[in-house]
Amino acid sequence: MVDTKGPLIVALDFDTATEALDLVDLLDPDTCRVKVGKQLFTREGPAILKALGARGFDVFLDLKFHDIPNTVANACVAAAEQGAWMVNVHASGGSRMMVAARDALAKLSNPPKLIAVTVLTSMASEDLLETGTPASPMERVLLLAELAQQAGMDGVVCSAQEAQQLRARLGPDFNLVTPGIRLPENNVGDQRRVLSPSDALAAGANYLVVGRPITAAPDPAGALEHIRSSIEAD
Ligand code: C5P
């Protein structure tokens, strides 16, 4: 377990604040955190972060910043000012961009965790090739994760199936945030490479991003508890 709230981050992939808040009102902020991505944030703006914070939830603001260093650094500070607990940037923006973000956040009294995205899990070798990258996705993930660590990031987002290799390479103190989590009885949906919660933790993940297995469940609180007990039982 990472801490008393546990490793679960519930992905609030909704169109409206009403849907997101109806869902979180079924959950306990002491047993999970939540993730707000581009879909919800672009419609609802910072008000959704305030509403979630007021309910006691830690919020991972998943906007994957990728821009010139000054812009990304200022965007990370803006996210921190809205109360984000975790923010992320694209490692492919380079070390100068990541260092600028890290240095800007270091000036704050309670900075959010700063996480880098390596290779989007939707990208296969041919997608990398057409963007001028001949390396395999795994080679590219390792290179970008090492760059992120050297640039002082707190961790990376990675697929659960990359976690073991990254944990071995990057040591015990680097956070691995992994989506693509499913229990055996769950629908895989559009995820390609999935792992169970306890297997992902055993592989070295610190935080597990879980969306539809909780948000689309008939009983979201029960689904979350079921996942928590599947972890504790292990
Ligand atoms: O519903 P599901 O559990 O598949 O949701 C996973 C969440 O993690 C979604 O918010 C998705 O955008 C996000 N994500 C992902 N794969 C990545 C990075 C983020 O599925 N590589």
Secondary structure elements and pairings:
Layout: E1 8-11, H1 17-24, E2 33-37, H2 38-44, H3 47-54, E3 59-65, H4 69-81, E4 86-90, H5 95-106, E5 113-117, H6 125-130, H7 137-150, E6 155-157, H8 160-170, E7 175-178, H9 197-202, E8 207-210, H10 212-215, H11 220-232
Parallel strand pairs: 1-2, 1-8, 2-3, 3-4, 4-5, 5-6, 6-7, 7-8
Helix pairs in contact: 4-5, 7-8
Residues 11, 13, 37, 120-121, 157, 179-180, 189, 191, 209-213 line the site of cytidine-5'-monophosphate (C5P).
% residues in beta strands: 15-25%
Low-pLDDT segments, ≥5 res: none
H/E series, N to C?
Answer: EHEHHEHEHEHHEHEHEHH
| CATH C-level category | Alpha Beta
**What's the CATH H-level homologous superfamily?**
Aldolase class I
Instruction: Write the CATH architecture name.
Output: Alpha-Beta Barrel
Largest sheet: 8 strands, parallel, barrel
User: Which small-molecule species are bound to the chains here?
Assistant: cytidine-5'-monophosphate
Fraction of residues in helix: 40-55%
Describe this structure in words.
The chain has 234 residues and is α/β, with parallel strands linked by helices. It contains eleven helices and eight strands. It has helices spanning 17-24, 38-44, 47-54, 69-81, 95-106, 125-130, 137-150, 160-170, 197-202, 212-215, 220-232, and strands at 8-11, 33-37, 59-65, 86-90, 113-117, 155-157, 175-178, 207-210. It has an eight-stranded parallel β-barrel, surrounded by six helices. α4 links the parallel β3 (59-65) and β4. The longest helix has 14 residues, at 137-150. The radius of gyration is 17 Å and the shape is globular. The N and C termini lie close together (12 Å). The mean pLDDT is 94. The structure holds cytidine-5'-monophosphate. Cytidine-5'-monophosphate is lined by residues 11, 13, 37, 120-121, 157, 179-180, 189, 191, 209-213. Residues 11, 13, 37, 120-121, 157, 179-180, 189, 191, 209-213 line the site of cytidine-5'-monophosphate.
